[in-house]
Amino acid sequence: MPRHRQIVKLLRQRLLEYPAVALVGPRQSGKTTLARTLSKLYFDLEQPADRLRLDLAWPSLVERNQLAILDEAQVWPEIFPRLRGAIDGRRRQNGRFLLLGSIAPPLMREVSQSLAGRLALVELAPFHLRELPLGKAEQLWRMGGYPDGGVLRKRAFPHWQINYLQILAQRDLPAWGLPAKPGLTTRLFHMLAANQGAILNASQLGQSLGLSFHTVQSYLDYLEGAFLIRRLSPFAANLRKRLVKAPKVYWRDSGLLHALLGVTEKTDLFAQSWIGASWEGHVIEQILAVRRAQGDELQASFFRSHDGWEADLILEGNGEREVIEVKLTTAPSPEDFSRLDQAADLVGGTRRVLISWTRQAVMEGRRWSVDLAGYLKRVSSGR
């Protein structure tokens, strides 16, 4: 049995502070399981019977002090004006409604129209390293963190991931508004996997798919809104250097990425040409999942100049600008850190972190050379 989900503390805190909280994240990431540990008053709004049950129970429900869970709230837009009326009728009472959603844009559109200032947003990612028993790091990277098909159920990999993506392409994404045919969506999935960690070239993707630049961008909006991919923005600053201005694109879950790339349980990851990009994306997602689950308000970007200076991840928040470089090596060199230092100097970095597979962590002041588990442990303990 896995550890308690890290997000619970933050979720409880937000319920104490707001009348409503939206818990968002990809399908099958554990939102419903987690929510039902907080209350038994549960309604699945994808089900007509539950919508009717909620409709009939609404007058008494809004007078109760029990937390009500509304799953996939965005599929029943009529609920949002009701929520606003119920919240405004007892404005000082917090922790009344927990909304669950698997795609962000429709939910956030309704929230911005009806619940602005009344609701907090919390994101639940699949399992991350700090939520798992020791010794699961490599398995998590290989198979991903989805509860039903990733690190916790290795026999299901990669069949679970393939079926998951097929259902998204054939049913869920079209239901959420994506106009592409399933075959085209699947081709886009594979092309994005082949370009893991690359600078986004929407025009080139469009040419390969027979789509316009703008259509590709709109399709990526859906995939990002479904928490499948991340478009990591370039660092923006007035430097005396020409900077890359397009985002980098990553699959957020390494298990989905590896399934698309044909990985099986016996595949030698270290023999693959794309292994560095896979590891880089995995590290970035683990860092963001852990940091944000503990309530850190962070802006994430990457830095790359046209003359070769770069950093894989820049985190800004709480007066800190943390510059992180990811290396798939067990023996990071002084030259690796020297280049990181120079890139950090260019962007005004405070803490400089080199994450590798090293077994000899060094954390001197604001200059760290550490493995992923050591970094996550350090930033989870108050730094």
Written overview of the protein:
The chain is of the alpha/beta class and 383 residues long. The strands form three sheets. It has a six-stranded mixed beta sheet. It has a five-stranded parallel beta sheet with strand order 2-3-4-1-5, sandwiched between helices. The mean pLDDT is 93. The protein is globular. The protein contains 14 helices and 13 strands.
Query: Helix and strand succession?
Result: HEHEHEHEHEHHHHHEEHHEEEHEEEH
The percentage of residues in β strands lies in: 15-25%
Biggest sheet features: 6 strands, mixed
Radius of gyration: 22 Å
Structural class: alpha/beta
Major sheet strand order: 8-9-10-11-13-12
How many separate helices? 14
What distance lies between the first and last C-alpha atoms, to the nearest angstrom?
Answer: 28 Å
Unreliable residue runs? none
Number of structural units classed as domains:
2
Helix content range of the residues, please?
40-55%
Oligomer: single chain
Number of DSSP strand runs: 13
> How does the overall form come out from the CA principal axes?
globular
Question: What is the overall pLDDT average?
Answer: 93
